[in-house]
Structures are given as C-alpha cells and as structure tokens.
Amino acid sequence: MLDSAARDRLPAAPGVGYKPQHFAQITADPGSVKWLEIHAENYMGDGGRPIAQLRHLSEKFAMSVHGVGLSIGGEGPLDTDHLARLKHLVGWLNPASFSEHLAWSTHDSHFYNDLLPLPYTDTSLQRICDHINEVQDTIGRRMLLENPSSYLAFAESTWSEPEFLAEISRRTGCGLLLDVNNVFVSATNLDFSPQGYIDAFPLDKVGEIHLGGHDEDEDDHGRPLLIDSHGREVVDPVWALLDYTLAKSGPKPVLIEWDNDVPDWPVLEAEAARAATALERVPA
Amino acid sequence: MSVSQTEFTRAMMDAGQPVPDGLIDHQDQPAGRRFSVYRNNVAVSLTEAMHSAFPVIAKLLGKQNMDGLAGIYLRQHPPSSPLMMFYGEHFPAFLEGMEQLQHLGYLGDEARLELALRRAYHAADAAPITPDALGALTPDQLMNTRLTLAPAVQVICSPWPIHAIWRFNTKDGASKPEARAEDVLVTRPEFDPIPQILPPGGAIWIRALMQGATIGEALEQAAAADETFDLGATLALLLQGGAITGLDSKG
What we know:
The complex is a heterodimer of chains A (about 280) and B (about 250).
Chain A: E1 14-17, H1 23-28, E2 35-39, H2 49-58, E3 62-66, H3 80-93, E4 97-101, E5 104-107, E6 110-116, H4 122-139, E7 144-146, E8 153-154, H5 161-172, E9 175-179, H6 180-190, H7 194-200, E10 206-212, E11 214-218, E12 224-228, H8 236-249, E13 254-257, H9 265-280
Parallel strand pairs in A: 1-2, 1-13, 2-3, 3-4, 4-7, 7-9, 9-10, 10-13
Antiparallel strand pairs in A: 5-6, 11-12
Helix pairs in contact in A: 4-5, 7-8
Chain B: H1 5-13, E1 23-24, H2 33-53, H3 55-61, H4 63-76, H5 91-97, H6 107-122, H7 131-135, H8 139-143, E2 146-149, E3 154-158, H9 162-170, E4 182-187, E5 194-197, H10 202-210, H11 215-225, H12 231-240, E6 244-248
Antiparallel strand pairs in B: 2-6, 3-4, 4-5
Helix pairs in contact in B: 2-4, 3-4, 5-6, 10-11
C-alpha cells in the first residue's frame, strides 16, 4: 500500500493499461507494474463492478486517466455533458494524471470510436488550444496531450507535428504524452526519421511515455503501412526508440498499452519488466 | 484544399464515396488506401462493440450475419455518445424492422433483455433493506407501504420465451426453450445482473411500484390483470435480488 503522496504523481516506472480480466493478479502481485492507466469512458457508468474495482485499485496504485472521447481536435464545440462526466470522474478518483489525444472522434453528435486525424494549421491550432483551455479550466488541473499515429497527411498542413504540439503546450500550459510507438508508426508511414521527430519534440514537457504493438500492412504502392493496433508485443525498433528517447529525456513514466487480443497477465507483465530494464539503464 | 470533418466522416462511413481531395501520402499523392485504415477501424471497432453488447443475439444469428447487421446498424445509428457501454439502444427496434428477420420475432425482445442486463451492470450501487424491515410491519402497514427499488432493477415483458432463450445460449445444460410468453425481472444483488422469470401479474405489480403505487395499490392492479398473482413469491424475488432499497410506510 502506497501512502497518498506516492499516488499523487506517476512514478518514472512501468505502468500498464488496466484490463478487468487481470484484476486478481494485479492486486495479488503486480510484479514490475507500478501504476495503472484506465480509459476514462469505461468508468463513466453509475456504479457496479467497474467503479468498485477502480476504487480498490486507486488505493494501491498511482492512476492515470486516459480519455478517448473528448474529441479535442473536433471542429465543433466540446461535448459539455461529456466534459461534466470527466470532471466527476477526475474529481472523485483524483488520479495522478489525465491525458487525451491530438485527434477528434465526434462530429455532428456522432461518436466514431476512433482517433481521427486533423490538419496542422493556425486555425486548428487556435481551436485545439481553446478546447484544451476549456478542459483544464473545467477539471481544474493540467492535462497531457498525446501525439497520434498517422496513416496519411493533410495537404493544407503548415506545421510539423512536434512544433504544433510544442506550440499547444506553450500556449495552454498542458503537458505532453509521447507515444513512441505512434512516432515509429507515423515515421514509417510518412517516411520521416523517428529520431529526428524525438529530437524536435519538447521532451521537457513530457509527463508520460506510451508503448504499444502495431500491425503491418501496405499502401497502394506496396510501401509499408503500419497500423497502431495495440494488439501485440512492442517490436524491437520501438524499444530502441524508447532507449533513444529516455537517454535524452531522463526517466519518465512508461506505459504498455495492449487493448486488443489482451494477453494473459504474465505476458503483459513481461512487457512492463522490459520497460523497467530500459528505465534502469537511464541515469536519473 | 481543406478537408472538413463533415467530408471526412461522410467518406469514412460510405466506402462508395471518393477519398476527400487534400488527404495525401508523403509524396503528395492521393491518400487512397491509407484512408481505408479509418474506414476499417471505425467499422471493426463498432462491430466488435455490438458483438460484446449482444452476445446472445450474435450467437443466435451467427458471426457472419451479426457482422452484416452490425455493419448496417452502425451506419444508421452511429454512437450518440462516447459511452460505448450503452451503445446499441436502437438495436431491438432495428432488428424488428429488418424484413429478412421477420421469422425470428423474438430477436427484438431478446436484445432488450441484453440491453437491460448491461444497464443493470453499470447502474448505481444501492444498499438493500433486509427482509426483517418488511416483516416488522402489520399487514395494514405493509399494504400502505411504498418501496424504493434499486437503480439496477428492470422489467421486460415479452410474448416470447426470452429468459429461456437467454439461458439456453449462456448456460451449459439449460433446457430447450418452449414457446410461451415470459416476463423477466433483472436485479443485481452484488455485481452480476440476474434475469429471473416473473410469475403472472408480477411485471404489472413491479411496474406499479416503480410508478409510486403502494404495495396494496399495486396488488389491486396485478390481481385485476391476473387473479393468480402471487404477492409473496414476487416480493421474495425482489428481496433475493437485493432490489428493495427503501420503504416508506407513512401511507
């Protein structure tokens, strides 16, 4: 059992995305796993087992709430009902961190259950900053914003992604969540250097790192098209990119995401143990 | 060339639409197949959500048919909120409206039962009263008592054997459903919702209680509808299900 101060911030240690099927094993012996992340929307019901489990876990672990439904990159206004639900969850749980995505998922009152891409322009920059300010004002805390996986680009974009995220952070004071697998996926799909992306990224603003597995496909021209699937182990080149990142950033909280074809607990824990090894190599 | 989110979603939800101009690859070529990633992600994730929301319907229809129906449903009724735990509220009526499913008349009510079980799973917690609290009342007081039921409690009435079909498709060794009407009570004693068959008149009695009738007033309604209505048996189902969370015997 941690004291409350230790649950106030994410430790620079491995965490995993929590899956209910792992509840008994996590509470009995979490192994290398020092903190847990939940998807906010799965804990917005009124009660029952999900909420009871979350209450129990939050007494033992530092918790990160990761939203997938705010649609911060949406053209329309934020869904104020959804924002109120988020405020309620963050209010009672008091997690160590709240994060969301540089993406949109809702349009014209329809929710598409996916993280959709947006152009990086002065117009979208202003809208996103307005949305982030609204979120931070409503929930009364600083949030982290995550870089997406990209499969295509917008001809109208005038900003590079690291510069765009840095400017959002500068204007709103939000922190950033750096998904190293997303960098690798986007770099492969859009043919840029993943190390160059990390070099351009404002690592001092990073409050959390994500790692996950991806699938391999091809585009119309037979070139590799990687899909961010969160359905398998993290591949070696992404582990290498984590090492590259940590060497520059210093130790950070590192999360393993595995959302589809969820494995048995020992397989997930082994991924967390590998992240622990990577973190141990980094001078504090 | 700017791409609006209206254009993006229209093309994403209808593979017959062209990929919007202005979406490109790293060599400034049209995005083509890369756009299909989003078409595929949305369709697959919402189809999977329908499978996990309606496992009995999916089993009754088979995977291929369920995939096909989900593909139509998700385009007619995309989620209206990010709370995927409640996705599928229009699915019962959607199933009833499908011409090729008219011979499977029970599907709509079966889907209503699955929706009710899911809502019960996520319903607010509420501490039940003990049977002693009712036992301490005189018969007159009991008849003048109003009951508060737990938020998880739901009643589904059907001309089909929806409880038997549910059991047959979720429990090993359950007996084959026989044609008959079944009214089902859903309670959640702790964390797992439980569907149970209500005796004749039971649904009318519970629904009257939910609308604020006293036990006696609800009894009159239930007995008028079915003279065999068994108050004790129905009350016992509620008590066993932890479904009564408060009582007001002030009359």
